[in-house]
């Protein structure tokens, strides 16, 4: 290996331990082991434009092992994307170098990582998006997605789904380095697992190579072969040494120890200053870039810009020859939607909202060309087959379709959707039963943190799943999801929008809202059973349902109401039955309100909120989940009827009666509320 390459790798190692030592917090050992691979990858293989970091056709690097953030920051510091002060403020308030990487494309950070297993799975999603776009616009745009994974990421169960799908689809544009150092945070890896990782990935259809992760020639050969691979994703297993270069105060070797993983090396048997000297760093200025490394990277940056300019010229030529395709591609990358007429989507009366969603998806399949819909082996039940019937599944060597058959892998599917969104140019939609949103929560949270407009479709939204019983009947799930509407992202906005439409017209509007929401993820919570269409006071129920864009609106208006009834989803129709009984039996005037999203409703002007749910009126809420779903809306004069127990196996109509979700019980509950207020 050349001296300058070793010097650059040692510089990365020195910077990594310096950051951790100054912060008195972090993970130094892994970055010391990964420095050789990182330098060779970025200096010789990764194609990007340092002067245009958001260039859509760049190669992308997806970090899985977020605890190795100093490896990423040190590399991009050499590339001029961080200042010395940024590096010195690692893990500090207001710093651009947080403890785990947070997406920052202009500095080179493609994804937020930390929860192990999700980072490389997002990389798989980006590789799918790249294949999808290349199929439609030409493989001139072909670019690689590189992943970096550690022992922990390989062990996380999500890696199985990512490995299976990447191999099945033949994602030869995905190249992953496995930093295999036999050490994890609290133990040696051999105490945790004895599996043959290479054989596992080979069984999934991967091209697997095992190399010395510190031998630069072996790294080059592996990356060259991976870039030439035509049929399979590649896993490069790099055998590395935890804490490569660490020594004691006397200069004795102190590499490979478990304790080097998760604390400053000065807290271990290694000596910080002696290790800096061993790595060729200036002990008095440990955050400095070595002079020869700085000169090398200055020339490297110029070369990267020149190389990217050649590709950009070829792309410009293609654009001149294909103006219509070029404009379409720009529209995709800008997130521009075509003109869509959601009112034109015709639904039969009394449909389940999942069935109405199927009609919308069929329309979108014919009108939105850059959408990938995925289902966790439930397309005929969650009704994403409305989309599938208009296209075909993605297949190895054929990405002309637009449906991803994810198999039974909800978490993997959701993390892949995050990667698709991070890549750009493609709209990801994922679907499963609402109760299985529990399996997806870690990826939903990452959608929210990264502000990714993933569309989640959750059907079978309540206990009315019926005979399938308590394991399949969501009770607490809506409360969990709606908590995200109350949580702000770093842009200061609600980090998630949850929509539970009350009929077919609201479902059409909910899809309109989801497609137009390009800032944060959206969840559509849809019924299995048919729902009565809500009454319309005009000729167009859809036009009235557009008020759902404000999060809540009036369905049945009465002058000077005695009580306000609020719900979302199928319970709104039940409220209307109850309101009718209240009027006919007791001459009680009830206003009925649909609130598909409390989060959006709370963003409206106070005057609007007061006009919909007056503060001086008794309020009754009905929810098929936990009462907390509506308690934030009912105020001090209110009462919520919901569930405080799991479901049971029985037909849905029986459960409605047993659990009290009838017009008759609404009448009873409201009468009790009004008696309390007298």
Can you tag this structure with a few keywords?
678 residues; 43% helix; Rossmann fold; alpha/beta; 5-stranded parallel sheet; 16 strands
Task: Explain what you see.
The protein has 678 residues and is of the alpha/beta class. The chain has three domains: 296 residues, 3-Layer(aba) Sandwich (Rossmann fold), CATH 3.40.50; 173 residues, Thiamin diphosphate (ThDP)-binding fold, Pyr/PP domains (Rossmann fold, 3-Layer(aba) Sandwich); 128 residues, Rossmann fold, CATH 3.40.50. It is 43% helix and 12% strand. It is built from 25 helices and 16 strands. The strands form three sheets. The chain has a six-stranded parallel beta sheet with strand order 7-6-8-9-11-10, sandwiched between helices. The protein has a five-stranded parallel beta sheet with strand order 1-2-3-5-4, with helices on both faces. Helix 14 links the parallel strand 6 and strand 7. The chain is elongated. The termini are far apart. The model has no long low-confidence stretch (mean pLDDT 97).
Short description:
This protein is 43% helix and 12% strand. The protein has 25 helices and 16 strands. The protein is elongated, with a radius of gyration of 28 Å.
């Amino acid at each position: 290996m050349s001296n300058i390459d070793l010097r650059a790798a040692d510089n990365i190692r020195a910077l990594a331990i310096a950051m951790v030592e100054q912060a008195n917090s972090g993970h130094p050992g892994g970055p010391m082991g990964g420095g050789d691979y990182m330098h060779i990858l970025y200096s010789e293989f990764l194609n990007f434009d340092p002067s245009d970091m958001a260039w859509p056709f760049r190669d992308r690097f997806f970090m899985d092992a977020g605890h190795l953030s100093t490896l990423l920051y040190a590399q991009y510091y050499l590339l001029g994307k961080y200042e010395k002060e940024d590096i010195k403020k690692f893990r500090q308030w207001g710093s651009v170098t947080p403890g785990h990487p947070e997406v920052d494309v202009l500095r080179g950070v493609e994804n937020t990582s930390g929860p192990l297993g999700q980072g490389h799975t997002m990389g798989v999603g980006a590789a799918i998006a790249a294949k999808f776009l290349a199929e439609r616009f030409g493989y001139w745009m072909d670019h690689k997605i590189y992943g970096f994974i550690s022992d922990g990421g390989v062990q996380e169960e999500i890696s199985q789904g990512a490995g299976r799908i990447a191999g099945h689809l033949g994602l030869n544009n995905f190249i992953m380095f496995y930093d295999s150092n036999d050490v994890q945070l609290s133990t040696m890896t051999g105490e945790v697992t004895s599996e043959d990782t290479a054989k596992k990935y080979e069984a999934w259809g991967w091209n697997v190579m095992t190399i010395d992760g510190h031998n630069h020639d072996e790294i080059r050969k592996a990356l060259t072969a991976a870039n030439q691979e035509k049929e399979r994703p590649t896993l490069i297993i790099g055998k590395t040494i935890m804490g490569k270069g660490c020594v004691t105060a006397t200069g004795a070797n102190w590499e490979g120890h478990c304790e080097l993983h998760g604390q400053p090396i000065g807290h271990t048997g290694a000596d910080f200053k002696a290790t800096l000297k061993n790595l060729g760093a200036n002990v008095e200025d440990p955050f400095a870039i070595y002079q020869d490394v700085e000169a090398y990277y200055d020339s490297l940056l110029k070369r990267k810009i020149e190389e990217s300019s050649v590709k950009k010229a070829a792309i410009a030529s293609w654009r001149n020859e294909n103006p219509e395709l070029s404009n379409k591609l720009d529209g995709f990358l800008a997130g521009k939607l075509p003109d869509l007429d959601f009112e034109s989507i015709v639904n039969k009366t009394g449909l389940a909202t999942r069935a109405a969603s199927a009609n919308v998806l069929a329309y979108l399949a014919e009108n939105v060309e850059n959408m990938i819909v995925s289902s966790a082996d439930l397309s005929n039940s969650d009704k994403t087959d409305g989309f599938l019937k208009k296209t075909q599944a993605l297949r190895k060597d054929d990405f002309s379709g637009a449906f991803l058959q994810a198999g039974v892998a909800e978490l993997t599917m959701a993390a892949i959707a995050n990667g698709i969104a991070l890549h750009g140019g493609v709209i990801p939609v994922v679907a499963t039963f609402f109760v299985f949103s529990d399996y997806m929560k870690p990826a939903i949270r990452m959608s929210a943190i990264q502000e990714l407009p993933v569309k989640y479709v959750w059907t079978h939204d309540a206990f009315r799943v019926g005979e399938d019983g308590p394991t399949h009947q969501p009770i607490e799930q809506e409360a969990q999801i709606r908590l995200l509407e109350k949580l702000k992202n770093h842009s200061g906005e609600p980090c998630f929008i949850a929509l539970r439409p009350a009929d077919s017209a609201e479902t059409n509007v909910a899809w309109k809202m989801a497609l137009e929401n390009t800032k944060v993820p959206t969840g559509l919570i849809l019924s299995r059973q048919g729902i009565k269409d809500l009454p319309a006071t005009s000729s167009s129920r859809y036009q009235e349902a557009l008020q759902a864009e404000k999060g809540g609106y009036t369905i049945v208006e009465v002058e000077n109401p005695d009580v306000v009834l609020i719900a979302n989803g199928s319970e709104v129709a039940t409220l209307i039955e109850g309101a009718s009984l209240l009027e006919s039996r007791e001459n009680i005037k009830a206003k009925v309100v649909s609130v598909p999203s409390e989060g959006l409703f709370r963003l409206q002007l106070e005057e609007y909120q007061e006009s919909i749910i007056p503060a001086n009126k008794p309020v009754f809420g009905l929810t098929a989940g936990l009462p907390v779903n509506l308690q934030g809306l009912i105020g001090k004069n209110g009462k919520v009827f919901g569930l405080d127990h799991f479901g049971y196996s029985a037909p849905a109509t029986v459960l409605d009666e047993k659990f009290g979700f009838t017009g008759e019980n609404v009448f009873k509950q409201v009468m009790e509320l009004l008696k309390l207020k007298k």
